[in-house]
User: Fold this.
Amino acid sequence: MDEQEETSRPPGGLVEVVLYLSPGSPTSGKARRNLDAALQDYDPASYRLIVRDVSQDVAESEADHIVFTPTLIVRHALAPCTLVGDLGDTATVIAMLGLGGREKS
Amino acid sequence: MSVVEKIPTGVPGFDVISHGGIPKGRSSLIVGRSGTGKTILGLQIASYTARHGIKTLLIAVEESADDLISTGDNLGLDLSGAIASGMLRVTDASRQMEGPMVVSGEYDISGLVHRVQAISKQHGSQVVILDSATALFSPRPPQELLRSLFTQLIHSFRRLQLSSVVLAEAAEDYGQLTTLGVEDFVCDMVVILRNVVDGERRRRSLEISKYRGSGHYKGEFPSTITTRGLTIFPLDARDRPDAHTSERYSSGSPGLDAMISGGLFRDSIVIVRGPTGSGKTMLAGQYARAGAVRGEKVVYYGFEEPKGILVRNFAAIGMPMDELERAGNLHIICRYPEAMGLEDLLVTLRMGLEEIEPALVVMDSISSIEHSSSEKGFRQFMIGLASLLREHARGALLTQTVIGSEAATHTAPYLSTIADAILALDYSVGPGDLARTLRVLKMRGSSHVTYPYRLEITQGGLQVEPPTVRPPSAAAHRSRAGDGIPPPSPGVPERPLQGLRVLLVEDFSDAREIVTTILERAGAEVTPSGSSSEALEKIDASVPDLIVADIGLPKEDGIEFIRRVRARSGREATVPAVALTAWALPRDRARAKEAGFQAHLVKPVDPSTLVSVVGALAVRGSGDPKAT
Assistant:
């Protein structure tokens, strides 16, 4: 695992956000920035963000069937959602995160 | 000449048409519509390479890794075993179905490339098989991005020194190769699988449309899918490495062997053509039986009647097969080819030949296959069959039913090419029995008799005999009575055997008639008889001036007959005798003379020779010339 950031575990339903990136890829850098921007308004205690490097985290990539990068996987109470691409469509990203009501106070 | 290093695939027929397999270190594309067998072909290659020391990585995209392994195991490819041995590694890149997937913005294929890189390094993979590109790029990216992503993927395989096989969906059998429309530009080899409707049947085929840096067979090759996977039938009939032999073996009929200068060549394919009732099955049975009696393993495919009836009919004419089957030398397999597709029939035949490993194969008849398929389908079948036979047997005989006298006049060009020898059976309806004939139309690499021999169905099979009289070769020999018997040569008296009483012993009725006519026309009084016992009775009644006897008589042959005559105490002990026979070897001549014949004439005999020998012998033998 090249880089991993974890928020403190909140009480109640924790959303797991996993972002697979490719090292040195401009598109991956863009995705990371777009995700950070999308998450900035939400309470860090409501989600756990994991950022993985596909060149290092091979076992995890294989387990998650990763083909393209960037790929974002959001796991919450409902079925997991997958979003492939640079996460430039903020509205779609926010909708997939499902963090409505958990904004920072 | 091929300059590309190849990896054999083990897929039956594929390595033949690809001149050795897939290109090493390069990319191969297998395309086809849904249901053409792309996955099966991919799994066969994976299984073969893994089992032959080449570590292989299989990327499952279209279906899950577990489903793919299960498919392979069900085909008998033992993917699970290959995985357990460490030779095969399967990685799952299928789309996870439990949640939605959205594609938005830019992306690259680094995820898969890094996975492949890491796995191949850790596993030592040399071959990678991707099933499939179509599923991988679904939903489909914009064309430019798609081209870029696919090219990245293929180049990464190459950079990793992997030999890749990529499967891709086609929208149609003929037209744009793949639905994505980019893969074939990038790959070094392109294989097209098809499954089209041809008449009332589906016809599968495989074509290599592109192979950078390598030769390959062009065009579509018939293929089929069975429980053993995909099999391709190369149209090219490959020679066996040891096929160039001049060794001969008996056809089962001494008369036929004599016509073709001593027997059939090893590794040759013989086609026996003729109308219904001309004796094809009998000749086929005789051929099979002779091989089995010699101790060779023979497989007889009967396509026209149930086994029980076939075997019963053979037994009824003195060719029992039961014992040979019990001994394991003869395998009789009867089936109705109409019940299955031609490709499936070829696969069934291949499986049978691989299991039985016969020296000789009989198929009676290919016409039942011809009648249940399209012309193109039959042509492909026959060429595939020829390839199969040359690969698995040391000789084959196929029968073909034709209408009327077509046997001697018409042969489809591809059948003519396949056959090393073509025999034409025929018959004409005379006032009495059928007059059957056998003609050798073709015998590659051997001299052969070009005029028809006579055929008679006897106990023990077909008896092939030369015509009693050699047919006139040109208009110079015109028949006086239209009976084919030439007139006497100029300067020879019209009736040189006037008053000579000749006893003729000949079992063939037409031969009896012809010899009788020749001798009577020369003035002799001929007493014909059909067997040794009948001839002895005739002698008891009246001793002739001269005897003309065939050697190959039923029950008691001509040798035994003349011995009996010579053993008698009366005038018949010294009656001159002429053997008139197909047995032409020096030892046959010596045997005849030793038994008591004064002269030995070989069929077909020239009428003037017969008359002059009979005349000379009558003068010398009795001292009382009857000839004038």
